[in-house]
Fold this protein.
Amino acid sequence: MEPENNMYGAYIDLAKYDPLTTVLPGTSPGTDLWSQINTAGSTYNTPTDPVEDKLIEMEKKMNALDLKYSLLKLKMLGIQGIFTQEEISNVRKMLMSEDEASRTLADSIIENA
C-alpha cells in the first residue's frame, strides 16, 4: 500500500485528494498555512479602545437625536400647513433612507421651509 503523503508534503494519489478535508503535514508547528492565517487573523480581532467605543456610541446617539429633531420639525411644519401630508410622507422617507444624499436633501428642505 502506497503512503498518501511523501516526505515533502506533496499528495501522491490525486484521485483521493480533497483540498477541503486533506491537511498536508507541515515541517514544524505553526508553519502550515492554516495556522499562519489564524495567527494573522487574530491581530485584527483584538478588542478596540474603550474610548473609541464610547465615541462610536455617542455618535450613534447624536445621529438618533438629529433624526428625531428633524422629524419633530417636519411635524411642526405640517401642523403649520407649510407641507401637505404627501410631502411630509416623502420627506420622512428621505430622512429614514440609507442614502446620505437623500438625508442631506431632506434636511435642507426642512431648514429652508
